[in-house]
Design brief:
Blueprint: E1 5-6, E2 9-10, H1 40-47, H2 53-57, H3 70-87, H4 108-121, E3 149-155, E4 165-170, H5 183-186, H6 197-206, E5 214-217, H7 225-234, E6 243-247, H8 253-258, E7 265-269, H9 275-282, H10 287-301, E8 303-309, H11 315-329, E9 334-338, H12 359-371
Parallel strand pairs: 4-5, 5-6, 6-7, 7-8, 8-9
Antiparallel strand pairs: 1-2, 3-4
Amino acid sequence: MVLPTLGGRSWRAKPLSRGPALFLDVKIRPRVDYRTEHLPKYGEVLAGTRWPQFVHTRAWALDWDPDDPTSVLETVHDLAIQEIRSSGVFDTPRSGDDEAPEPVLGSLLELKMELADRLAAECQLCERGCGAHRAEGKAGTCGVTESRISSSFLHHGEEHELVPSHTIFFAGCNLECQFCQNHDISRQPLSGEVLSAEECADLILHNEFSSRNVNWVGGDPIPNVPFILKVLGVLRSRKPRPQVFNSNMFMTERTLALLNGVVDVYLTDFKYGNDVCASRLSKVDGYFGVVSRNHKMANRQAELLVRHLVLPNHVECCSIPLMNWLREEIGPLRLNVMDQYRPVYRAKEHRDIAGRLTTAEFLKAYRHAESIGHLGLD
């Protein structure tokens, strides 16, 4: 099989100077059993009866001036979101033969790009608020100055609604999880390759008829929101795929607002049920307040699929409280209770997570989620 050449480089699997391999998977016909009953709008996009949200956002014309101060542009943005939501355009049915709405200059998506660049310039995308001047090559906690892609491939190990999923892994992460299962890329922000938005769009086009979605992951996609928006701005797909934002959700309200009208499914990683565990094991303050707030906001924007990795000795302090909060504040939702914890990276430095998760611990967490009505448990 001959893969496309982008910018003079062949995207066949190959080792990089640092980090994992960057590659394209072979084309595989998507399965026809979509099983998306817990994500019905996402299922409609797959069935060809609804457009992904970003298709409408880049076709929504606005009158705005890039020389205006940020506060003015944020007001324009927020009013535009209210207008596009109230218009019902996101819920407009389509037939499989419809042409996608044409992108326009000065669109709502382009305004989002401008505002995202301003947030990134002073490292205000996540709630750490580092203030690092990324444009000058100075990095904050995540280590990201420019987006680097560690790998791009068709993933068959995600939740059944998602596979095959075109996962695009970014290097770098705004949390410092001591047990990170992807620490080889999350703690090595200089791994991977720097691509242009056009090159990344070409990667997506290569798999558009083989994948069910585009899955932005990492590391974490939060430090890379400006790049993601730029990719969607130049993407000219014959079969636009739903956008999945696979994240720890520790971002600012302004960043999350920029994803409104762009993301179709938030695939969230809800780790802790309190701030004490989060501070010790992910080196972050105010975790639960930020992440719980953002789950509420995300639920108003798109559909949620929540992951929770059960940690050893953390069922009572983390698993059960966060499951209860989700049930009480958002309602029954698609929840993946995960048992694949391994004591990697720096886990051995913390006695409570230095060992394996026991079957009894996992079953206690799983059965609790089941007992309070969460749906589609994996």
